[in-house]
Amino acid sequence: MQVENLHTSVACNRCTECADWGPNGWIAYGACNAIAIMDPKFQGNSAKVLFTLVEHTKRVNTVRWLDCDKLLSGGDDAIAILWELDETGTTKSFTLKGHTSGVNTVDGIRQQDGSWLLATAAADTTIKLWTFQDNNYVCFQTISLSDGFCFCLRLQLLPKSNQVLLAFSGDDETVSLWSEQVETAGEGDSLGRQFQRKHKLTGHEDWVRGLDFVVDGEDLLLASGSQDNFIRLWRIAPRSKEQMQENRVDLHQLSHNDDEIKVEEKILQLGKEAWYAVSLESVLYGHEGWIYGVHWHKTPDQELRLLSASIDKTVIIWAPTEEGIWLEEVRVGEVGGNSVGFYGGKFSGDGHSIMAHSYQGGFHIWSQDPDRPQLWTPGVIVGGHYGEVRDLAWEHSGAYLMTASADQTTRLHAPWLQDGANPTWHELARPQIHGYDMQALALLSRYKFASGAEEKIVRTFQAPANFIENFRHISGIENDDAGDVLLDSLPKGASVPSLGLSNKAVYKVDSEVESTSKTSKDEYPDNYFVPIALETPPQEETLMQNTLWPELQKLYGHGYEIFALAATADGSLLASTCKASNAEHAQIILWNPSNWKQIQKLSGHQLTVTQLSFSPDSRYLLSVSRDRRWCLYERQDSSVSYQLVASTDKSNGVHTRIIWSCDWSHDGQFFVTSSRDGKVVVWKKEEDCKESSLNGWQANGVLELKNESITAVAFSNSYLSGTDDTYILALGTETGLIKIYQFVRGAWKLLSDLNKSQAHHLTVRRLQFRPGKQLQLASCGEDHLVRIYDIKLT
Amino acid sequence: MRNLKLRYCKELNAVAHPQHLLLQPELNGGASDIYFVVADNKIYAVQESGDVRLKVIADLPDIVGVEFLQLDNAICVASGAGEVILVDPQTGATSEGTFCDVGIESMAWSPNQEVVAFVTRTHNVVLMTSTFDVIAEQPLDAELDPDQQFVNVGWGKKETQFHGSEGKQAAKQKESDSTFIRDEQELNQDVSISWRGDGEFFVVSYVAAQLGRTFKVYDSEGKLNHTAEKSANLKDSVVWRPTGNWIAVPQQFPNKSTIALFEKNGLRHRELVLPFDLQEEPVVQLRWSEDSDILAIRTCAKEEQRVYLYTIGNYHWYLKQVLIFEQADPLALLHWDTRCGAEHTLHVLKESGKHLVYRWAFAVDRNNSIVGVIDGKRLLLTDFDEAIVPPPMSKIVLKFETYINAFISHGTSLWVYTCDRKIYLNEHIHTLGKELQKPIMLMPDAELSGLHLANLTHFSPHYLLATHSSAGSTRLLLLSYKDNDNKPGEWFYRVHSSVRINGLVNAVAVAPYAMNEFYVQTVNNGHTYEVSLKADKTLKVERSYVQLHEPADQIDWVIVKGCIWDGYTGALVTLRNQHLLHIDGYRIGEDVTSFCVVTNYLVYTQLNAMHFVQLDDRRQVASRNIERGAKIVTAVARKARVVLQLPRGNLEAICPRVLVLELVGDLLERGKYQKAIEMSRKQRINLNIIFDHDVKRFVSSVGAFLNDINEPQWLCLFLSELQNEDFTKGMYSSNYDASKQTYPSDYRVDQKVEYVCRLLEQQMNRFVSRFRLPLITAYVKLGCLEMALQVIWKEQQEDASLADQLLQHLLYLVDVNDLYNVALGTYDFGLVLFVAQKSQKDPKEFLPYLNDLKALPIDYRKFRIDDHLKRYTSALSHLAACGEQHYEEALEYIRKHGLYTDGLAFYREHIEFQKNIYVAYADHLRAIAKLDNASLMYERGGQLQQALLSAKHTLDWQRVLVLAKKLSEPLDQVAQSLVGPLQQQGRHMEAYELVKEHCQDRKRQFDVLLEGHLYSRAIYEAGLEDDDVSEKIAPALLAYGVQLESSLQADLQLFLDYKQRLLDIRRNQAKSGEGYIDTDVNLKEVDLLSDTTSLHSSQYSGTSRRTGKTFRSSKNRRKHERKLFSLKPGNPFEDIALIDALHNHVTKIAQQQQPVRDTCKALLQLANAADADPLAAALQREFKTLLQAVDAALDEIWTPELRGNGLMADHLTGPNVDYLALQKEQRYALLSPLKRFKPQLIMMDWQHEILQ
Q1: Do A233 and A281 contact (CB within 8 A), yes or no?
Q2: CA-based nearest residue to A340, from A309, A311, A363, A383
Q3: Rounded distance between C-alpha atoms, residue A600 and residue A588, angstroms
């Protein structure tokens, strides 16, 4: 059995320096505790997360490409990891242990002798310098910053020298320059090397959050971006001994001699016979907010470009004029939306594309138009949730996947069908951007869904016309009768009013003429929805404000936060449960989606119902709960009301801990339950037996995985090909693993076992097979990841 | 922090074996001195003063309760047999109230005497109205309704609760009922009733079966509200605190004796632990004082009887007084005075019939900053100079063997007077907190051991003062102590000398520095006496010092500052509780709750305010709000601290600004500037006061000031806080006398900042190294940023890092961009670079600019910089220095910025170029229509033609001719061209000069003269030339004479018309009497009134006038004036208009004198013309008539009231406003002031004698 990852969606962590664009064209970024490697040019115009690297145990704070195949990362787990990669993933990794607190920034440089010099700075107020050679690493110096922090550091080989210059910025608003001792005593012995502070660059009036070096002719240019909204460029130029001696500028004689006025230079001796002059080259002002990231690029004809990303939601490319004054050449950014700004930005290797990652973890990519160099167009990218993903649901025919997350959004992932290429998956809409963490999700029909957040109401939504149009276009949907019916009657889009909390439908879109008339009222319009006809999957800023679905109805009834939702296959019934500590609140409420009335309250459980599942024919409703029991409700003939027909009790329930998940087989013959004690039980109705509470349902097969907590379980939608009694089941565990089993007449057989890099590295929250012919599985987990696998049976 | 201070204790004689005491409440202000005592089944009336006259007014066996009914003026008596009768106190007549056949156990009237509660012998509780109608009756042992019984709300089982020091095993103990089983028959079966102060509830204490002593709470409807919580060993006394929160009952525990305090609901709330054992010393009586402040506990031990007085503060019970009575003469009863103002008076009646009246007052015992509190056997002392220790804690605790009744702390000595009348003397308490030496114990001598001393006061190191009252007089005692001759080591104190004063002395105050004088005050008449100590140590009453309306409760002698050395004067501060505060009888404030003297100020509090009164002039200088009800404990002058105690007992220390300023001022006087600044900063005092406190002194000791302040940062603060304002007259005027503030001659308050900064800058410049930062601050304050920069720049040459720091400091004060400009203004690129590198300026921008500048020659560079900085004059001076090649630019620059005069000055050396400037200047002048100046400038600039044209325009014909000459133009022609314009301007003489000079045509010459009516000149010219005068001149002259004559006649007529009309109008107004009202009626329709002039009569208010026109524009206003001054008859302001016209007319007439004279003279010269002489004579006559008419009429027209003199103003603003005059005044105000006075006619001698 082969399992291939079709789609991985995850956001970048909320850290500066958390994404880097490697020389191999790949973007590496920290995604929860993993590092995601994304190919932004997948199949030419698409993008895809190729694989994830899992070794950190806490949040990844920073990643940096050292080379085409070397990646250095640092995380909150106080370690830095040097990864060696190839096309398929990691080949080797070396863990740099030594820090006692989260590693915030890393850098590395290859020295002339082929060894690597690595530097890591951590929240334990130290910077550690390492050498790495022949798969061995040694920490040869620890720089203590007493009680300060290092925000950013860079290593750079000095021009015309083998000396390494270390620049780092601290919370004292300065940039420190360190280099190796000039003494020759320990030369050749890497352990004898010691860095020493040479100079402090002062001038910034707030923390410096971004640093970058570039070689400009014989000189070095250092850019520093600071929270005082200024970027400073510092020139480090080599000086000969004579120059050094002549250099002394007497400010007091400046007006009287004929020399050119220059900025004061500070002469540093960085090598035995090497002197360098440090001076302030320029001060760049253009951002209106803190500057977080700066990055140099050198065009093939040696022209310099500087990229700066700021919290003011803009990214600027600076270029020098002929007079040497730096002016902004391009300014791109986010427009509108409820976002904060950018945490970092990078040039691609060729300088024709730029990337920025934002506060909410979304990526932006802009590429230079080859014909019109001044035109930078946004490109397709993969984003994802930046909080744990708690529920997912496939559209009933498998056309798209919807996910709900603790980052207070629901997102809709759909394939982008292009001629002559494999479909790639992208986020197509963000139907709900909420004020509470999302918890559960149930699809009622293709264009209608219900969601529950950490609030007491269930909200239901319906797609707007604009979505249907774009969805059909991008995912190549045909024969969409449901959509046709809706298209005319539906609103165009939705928006959240400035002082409102719910998505409001927008029917009529203001014409251009009206919108151009600027009045004070227009500054805070009631809606800012703009219909967009998409050719490609939408960009982050479109997703943030123009893909909302209007809210249909709020369902009031539960006394505590909503916990689980389920709907029948035909969408004619919706069941919901909430957090509960007694039988009264643990009742399941059944709703009628046609008039949004409560139909029935089903009691049976004592504690929170963790998951619900309707049998494919809607005859049964199965619920599993914290009280370690499941209940089965059956619909009486010719009525809509359900009745409790079976449940486990202390004597006959196989599970001894909380039951996390349940699912029905596609034929309705079996259902499966999984629990924290590692047991997965398949139940089958054997014979009518009124005595027991089980009412004839018997455990047909029990699988027990020791020391595992099975948090998700799912039946596939058909028998294993070629059989009529072999079922395929997927299990997800609390450690993030996914296992695929076949189940034949009470016997379990492991078909495939996905490791953490392939699956998840934190609890799997939900698994579901894609409806339709192909065997595809979607999973989501607390590690912010949403993944879709294609399973091929061999 | 208060103690009970015994004011007096007087002894009276009453009836033996008293049972009840009845005091008559105050009637009509005066308290009756008759009170009633129940003894031996009789009611006696006792006269308090004078001879003791006992009168039996009623006789009834077994009296169980009496009450004086105020409304009925009757005494209600209840007997055990059940009789309740009313007795008239005057006549003794009785009437029956009610009767209870089972007998009465106890009776109690509610405090408002509307309801009375009885307990019958059968233990029924009966509640009646004041007319003895039964409200309710029920048995004492009735159970509570089930819904009113205690409900356990379930705070858990006893086993699970925390039991404190009893430990965990306490949880398992069963509550033993053993104490309850005791035979209740053994207990005292008395039933007692006590009402709450508001009369809503009362409590009945009785012995219940099974339970023993318990109590029940009933409301004023007679309904049982609550029963007591189960408590063992309650005693029989019960008393409800008048404010209502506690019911006090003595309770015995195995380990302690307490007064248990119960709440209204019968639940035990807290307790007061007694220092004795109830078994040995049972409580006989409990009494709350009427204001609930003091709880008196009377006990009866075997050998003696005692009365304990407790007060509460911060939930701590302080035992303040213990009175000990011998068993030989046992006490019969205790009774707190119920009368208003005497709440702290305790009546103690003894079995023997002795009646003792103790009067206490709350007072804070303070010795400067040390305050002591009596708590039983402990004396709690706190020095508030060192720390604020919240009560009931204290800095140190002194323990004594017996209860303390009073203590005196003075200087370093401490005298403690205990309940057994011993005095403990400790002479060295200045080392508070350290180990104190054992005090000397002074025994009373035989005489004193029987006296209860009041008003113990320290007098001089070895003497104490005390008072002792008996009957109506008081002995002032001077106490001294000495070694016992018989028993060495034993000390005793005795009366050294004494003096008797008629009346009860209730307060003593000693003058602290006098040593031989003190003041006492008597209750009876509010007199204060000065008593002095003679050389032979005898006391003598010198004189009556101050007479107050009411006796004060507290008196204090204070020294008025500054007077100590020259014979000192003092003042007596007196305060009657909650009432008036006086200094020497001069009333300072009302509703004063406490006071204290600190340095030169008297501080006193009202309910929620604190006031400061300066002692020298009794001026209230400051007030501030304080928390409600706070009273002063003490004040510490050295720390500027006032300690207040709030009603609950907690302390609050504040540093009032007045005292802080006093301290700061004192520090400044002593030249301790550093300390003064530190204190000002700490107490948020504006540092301006450092200078303003005494400007002259500051100026003269500025060197000392700088020397004293060791931290330059303080100087910077001082400088940056300076304001052009005298704070001793503004914010801090409380401590300063504005009239005493003097300034140096060259100082002005509105230039204070500059003055101080200059002053300090001069001084600091001598020690630049020390005062770099303040120097920079001073320069910034002065606006000399350049100087500030230069200081740093100088430093930069020696110590770059220091210079960086200084620049950093400067940047705190000034914006970096301003500083950059200033640096640029020095033309020193080094300095510019130095500053620019500290800014956020881009080197890529400023470096090219600086390099561009540097490439220029120095002068031109400076020009460019100055131009950049908009210093145009300076720029031009530098441009001038650049010389020739920049002439064009300079000219353009001069034109652009209008720098002509500067340009002329700067280019003084460049003569040729200067001309260009002159021309430019002239162009400019011509453009702004200054043609005469333009002409001059053109001339200087060599543009003669233009100069000529300009001169021509101004008709400056001399210049025109001169210029024409220079230009060699034909002079005559030029001159001719000027004649016409000159004539048009009326400058006939000048025109004639020109014509005469440049035109040979004599006819034309004469024409010019005649046209200008210059006949005399014409005659002269003609005479010279022998021309025929008559032919050429006479006709014109005669014609003119005739014309003049008719004009004079017309003038006269006009004048007379105006005058007549004016007089008519006035007469009409006068005739109609209320003439103004008539005219005013029309005013409504007249929209002539200006909005700006006020013409409001009593009948019209301005608002009723129509709106619309505001006459704001000058054109409108003039039009309006014209309308207002219209001479059209009937115009309501016609008289005003006439006066205006007359004034103009008269002035014009007066100016006619010279023309008339000249004309007459010319006419006379025409001797040959026949009609000339008569014409001249007629002219003269006409004019004379005119002048006489005018002169005669002047006073008629300009009446005195028109002038609106000062007299008028008086009744316009005075209390009796003459509205008519006011109206007139307002009308006349429409005239310009000049025209309200009659025109001054300047008369010249214009008449020709020959024509008369």
Answers
A1: yes
A2: A311
A3: 8
Taking chain B (1252 residues) in runs of 10, the rounded mean pLDDT of each run is 88 83 65 76 76 70 86 87 86 84 90 91 90 89 75 65 71 55 69 91 88 88 86 87 90 90 88 90 91 92 91 91 88 86 87 88 87 92 89 88 90 87 82 69 83 85 85 84 77 86 86 73 80 82 80 83 57 80 86 88 92 86 91 90 90 91 90 90 90 89 87 88 88 83 86 89 84 88 86 82 86 86 84 83 84 84 86 84 80 84 82 83 86 84 82 80 82 80 81 79 76 77 69 76 85 86 82 52 46 44 44 63 71 79 84 82 72 79 84 80 57 58 71 77 78 72
Q: Which residues of B touch A261 (CB under 8 A)?
A: 829, 833, 847, 850-851, 854
The span from the CA of B1195 to the CA of B1213, in Å, is: 27
CA distance B801 to B1008: 88
For residues A261 and B1030, give the distance between their C-alpha atoms in angstroms, rounded to a whole number. 94
DSSP string, A337-387: SS---EEEEEE-TTSSEEEEEETTS-EEEEEE-SS-TT-EEE-------SS
Q: A-B interface: how many C-beta pairs under 8 angstroms?
A: 63
Tokens of B758: 């200059």
Minimal-distance CA residue of chain A relative to B829: A255
In terms of domains, do B731 and B607 share one?
no
Alpha-carbon gap, residue A787 to A392, rounded angstroms: 11
Q: End of a domain among B838, B858, B883? A: B838
Output b/e per residue, A126-147; b: 16+ Cβ within 10 A: bbbbbbbeeeebebbbebebee
What gap in Å lies between CA A754 and CA B276, rounded to an integer? 86
Same domain assignment for residues B645 and B684: no
pTM of the predicted protein model:
0.65
Residues of A in Cβ contact (< 8 Å) with B833: 251, 254, 261, 263-264
Residue B332 lies in a domain: no
- Mapped onto helix, strand or coil, the DSSP state of residue B504 is coil
Strands A747-754 vs A738-744: parallel, antiparallel or unpaired: antiparallel
| Identity of the residue in B842, B845, B851 whose CB atom sits nearest the CB atom of A261 | B851
Instruction: Tell me which residue of A327, A584, A555 sits closest to A455, measured CA to CA.
Output: A555
Q: Verify that B1076 and B1175 share a domain, yes or no.
A: yes
Mutate to test the interface with B, among A226, A261, A280 (most CBs of B within 10 A): A261
Contacts of A264 in chain B (CB under 8 A): 833, 837
Domains of chain A: 2-251+261-378 (2.130.10.10), 408-556 (no CATH)
Name the residue facing B827 among A203, A228, A255 (closest C-beta): A255
Q: Is residue A431 reached through a cis peptide bond, with omega within 30 degrees of 0 on the bond before it?
A: no
The tokens 């050198």 sit on which residue?
A298
Half-sphere exposure of A672 (CA within 13 A, CB side): 30
- CB neighbourhood size of B159 (10 A): 10
8 Å CB contact of A254 and B833: yes
List of chain B residues whose C-beta atoms are within 8 Å of the C-beta of residue A306: none
Among A250, A264, A325, select the one facing B845 at the smallest CB separation. A325
In total, chain B counts a number of residues equal to 1252
Question: Given B822, B838, B854, which residue is the final one in a domain?
Answer: B838
Query: How close does chain B come to A419, measured CA to CA in Å?
Result: 52
Same domain, B1082 and B1145: yes
The alpha-carbon gap from B875 to the nearest alpha carbon of chain A, in Å, equals 18
Nearest to A116 by CA among A160, A65, A167, A170: A65
Sheet containing A195-201: which strands, arranged edge to edge?
A150-157, A164-170, A175-180, A195-201
Whether residue B816 lies within 8 A of chain A, CB to CB, comes out as no
